[in-house]
Amino acid sequence: MIHDAAFGIAILLAAGLAMAKLAQLFHMPSVTGFIFAGLLLGESGVGLITNDLLGHQLDHFTSIALMLIAFGIGEHVELRRLKGMERTVLWIATVQALVVFALVTAVALATLRLLTGSADAGQFTLALLLGAIAAANAPATLLHVVQELGARGPMTSTLMAAVAVGDALAIMMFGMAISVARNLAGPGQGLLLCLYETGGSLAVGICTGLLLDKIQDKLRSQGEMLTAGLAVLLLGGELSRLVGLSPLLVGMAVGFILINNAERDVRLFRIINGFEPPIYVLFFTLAGAHINLSALLAAGWLGLAYFFARMLGKYCGSWLGAWFAGADKIVRNYLGLSFIPQAGMAIGFVFLISADPKLSQWSQTITPVVLAGVMLSELFGPLLVRINLNKAGEMQKPAHDESFSLSSLFGKKQNSKLRLEPWTKQQLHPNATPTGTVLIGAAHFATIRALTRVATIIADHLGALPLSVRVQSPSSPELVSGDQENFCFPEIDEARMLGYSLQTKLIHADKVDLALATATQEQEAVALVIGYPVSRNPLKFHKMLSRITSTVSCPVIAVRFVGTMICHHILVPFILLQDLDELRSVLEAMTAACASKLTFQHLLPADSSLDEEQEAEQQLQEWVSAYFYGLEQPRCLVEITSSRLESILREVEEHDLIVMTAARVSGCQRRLFGTLADAVLHNCDKPALVVHTDKRSAA
After folding, report:
1. Same domain, 58 and 113
2. In 463-577, which residue ranges form alpha helices assigned H by DSSP?
3. CA–CA separation, 584 vs 588, rounded Å?
4. Cα-flanking dihedrals φ and ψ of residue 322, to 5°?
5. CA distance 590 to 455
6. Per residue in 71-86, pLDDT tens?
7. Domain membership flag for residue 410
8. What's the DSSP call for residue 540?
9. Using one digit for the tens of pLDDT, what is the confidence trace for 147-190?
10. What is the pTM of this model?
11. Which of 113, 248, 342, 388 is deepest in the core (most CB within 10 A)?
């Protein structure tokens, strides 16, 4: 069991992220994984997160999360975007809240009477409270799914605005239900309580938003804006909580004021968006940890009735509201089931009932019923939201990282079937007096043709001849000349299509790397072309590759194959301008033979100045003009980046092939710090040529 808050946060964040990645494998939203992680860590799972830790040390994180989430919801209630939709939003939010309240109350009352066989005022009070709680939505869940999918469009805007308005109505309805329940249980405080909570919260939120708008106009740096923004937001939320108001409504009102201001300054939203992901993970894992499975079993038929009645009410109410407002058919058909998620606000309502002495007698029934509904709605609700947004055609990106797969858990990339684009260009013309050879380290039947093509193109540019070297085990039988030609037919045939007569050589040896290094020296090779293994993790190939590059004096070109080998658009990422000198021969060969279009991507450190960027751009242009003046002008991209890998992966989507150098590091340095080429190969699904040179060949 964990009793320390800092340790508990670390475990919750790590487990939440791991379960989210696992959920993505099954095309489920990340929120579902967060809930599962909390459920496993809580009292219903392994018990690492105790009730004491949840109730006393981590409870304030939930309040902070709700405040920031509500602020993000307010950004989506932009009057400019909702112009012409105000009527639709009000109709949908109002009708669905009323239908859900009425339907859940009626179904809960009928279920209680069937289960007990009698009727009394206590059952009506219980059903009334359940109906009021059912009206609450899950703005945090919806916002997270919308951001994860990058969803944009009329339905998304209507959904987020209706959730904000609907939650305001839900608070009012809950306040009225509480007042009625107190009056039924004894002398109450009247219906003015709900008006005070709603009106007071909106007033505090508006004042906080206006204050924050004035403050951020005076600030320039992101650090100052984040500090001031969090300070004002949390101050407004905590003050409202101390006087019995709703921090959720306060946060929504602050976001509403800022986004609808004439200046429309969204910098604070963007800064806090970068701060929110761990808050989201912590919030939802904590919500999952609060779920008690033994209490859920006690919910029984009433819990199922609550869940299905709420689902039916949300769908029918939204459809009716959209129909009354004359909304688009897509909004009518797909909006309703997007309101199914329910989480933080409903749990907060349950806590309020439990803390009220007049209503605590019903909390033993309400708590398991609502928690059962929350668990089911949080498990299936985000998936329904994703399905509906997809059907509405408003998903802008996949619901999960497509590069993450089951194989990536074990450090392997999925390799689709390897293909080589047919050679449709003119044949190459061998040099009349060739000098040296370009060796091909042939090993795998699936890659030998592509290796031969790369080696032949480079040999043609360097005035050399391609030579295929096959390394066989000492126990393999000797082949006569005719059998050897049949054995090496794939590379011989590929070289013939390019206009070359390929030489072949069979070597019997135990160690492939030693045999290739020896052959490179004996054959006066000007380059060695080998392929990354297709059946294993490419990173395990580096031991052999390091031994070869440290032995031979010529460049070693390692080719990594994925999918179809095409050379139309080549990306050349580099860090230092000197790297291009090592790549120049390969690039000149590819552009001359394949008419490839090049993109040079110079990656500068994040702290580079504008002058350094301009100087790097000028140097790159001069280098390109010096060596590629007779070809189609390459594209020069100088980028100041905080993540080299992310910049390369983003740019490579528009290219067919990557050509880059490998850092000359090995041993502990490689294991500790890695290399950029290794990271690109491990995360990219495009073919790549990695040029390895030692100090001698580089000189």
Report:
1. yes
2. 481-487, 489-497, 512-522, 542-551
3. 6
4. -65, -35
5. 11
6. 876 776 666 655 556 7
7. no
8. G
9. 777 777 777 778 877 887 777 777 767 766 776 776 666 554 54
10. 0.56
11. 248
